[in-house]
Amino acid sequence: MKFADPKNDLAFKKIFGDENHKNILISFLNSVLDFKDEKTIIDVELANPYQVPRIPELKETILDIKATNKNKDTFIVEMQKKDLGDFTKRSLYYTSKAYVAQLPKGQNYTVLKKVYFIGILNFNIFDNKSFISRHLIINQETNKQDISDFEFSFIELPKFDKALKDLETILDKWIYFLKNASDLTIVPKEYKNIPEFQDAFDIATQNSWDSKELDVYDYIALKEFDELNALKTAETKGLEKGIKKGLEQGLEQGLEQGLEQGLQKGLEQGFEEGKYKEKLEIVRNSINQGLDDSTISMITGLDIKTIKDLRDE
Predict the structure, then answer these.
(1) Among 5, 24, 33, 266, which residue has the least CB neighbours within 10 Å?
(2) Range of the domain at 49
């Protein structure tokens, strides 16, 4: 049995954006947001349900899913495989756009409802050790959430390292599914008898996909592979260019330092030689004046042997 990679744009939207299997999205949202009791989502309305995109228009396919619960709150779910930079700003943009879109012209601000953003990332962007982090607008002094209409949850898949046997919660099972489903060949026993997971694995089973879906899925996977290779090539070329430039600068700097050090050393040696010659001249004058070797040695700092050699010249 071959399961699609849920991180693939088409597969993700096919699994979580299916009008006929809303239970999958509801289970996922409740587990990520830890909704219980009165907050539990019991139904959703998909703003952009799954449709097979035409390949030429694939670039216009936005991988986010908006849903509303009984309180008419809005939920945005986005799967991002590649770190394109500024993902936090992207999440703020989508959230604020969804928030503003709720307000028809002439309506009062009281109609605005809370917006939840859930970002599933195949890379790390935060310093926290946990694979999931929640971000709220908090009053710095009171530590209260006075402004509660925006809430962000980020799931960093590389930080999730649990094995099948270690899965404890529904959230654990969803994150493991997202990260590892494409490596499985059967539905693990840990997922048996849970309807939403059985449905998710059934949808991810590529044997049931039509040829158009398979073509788009493969196209997306190939496109991601090409983009990754292009990035690696650019990084390699950049590294090579950096090394070359570094060597050139290092050589230039080394030559400058060598000349500077050589000049300094030459000056020092020249100074020492000059001082030595000056001492020799003092020895000769002292000999001519009839001073003894011990006295001359004390005056110049030269050893007796050197003085005697000069005396014998």
Answers:
(1) 266
(2) 9-208
What are the CA-CA distances from residue 241 to residues 98, 236, 244, 248 (Å)? 44, 9, 5, 11
Tell me the pLDDT tens digit for each residue of 2-27: 999 999 988 999 999 999 999 999 99
Into how many domains does the chain fold?
A: 1
What is the average pLDDT across 96-106?
86
Record the tokens describing residue 16, joined without a space. Answer: 């979580």
- Residue 250: inside a domain: no
- 241: in domain: no
Cα dist. 105→102, 115, 160 in Å? 10, 19, 44
- Using CA atoms, how far apart are residues 39 and 71, in angstroms rounded to an integer? 9
The region that residue 253 occupies, defined by phi over 0 for left and psi between -120 and 50 for alpha, beta otherwise, is alpha
Asked whether residue 127 is assigned to any structural domain, the reply reads yes
Residue 251 lies in a domain: no
CB 204 within 8 A of CB 2: no
Question: Which residues on adjacent β-strands are paired with residue 154?
Answer: 119, 133
Q: Residue 307 half-sphere exposure, CB side, CA atoms within 13 Å?
A: 22
Residue 302 tokens read as 């030269």
Q: Are 12 and 177 within 8 A, CB to CB? A: no
Burial tier of 263 (Cβ tally within 10 Å: 0-12, 13-18, 19+): exposed
Structure tokens belonging to residue 149: 């209409």
Q: The sheet that has 132-137: what strands, in order across it?
A: 64-68, 74-80, 115-121, 147-156, 132-137
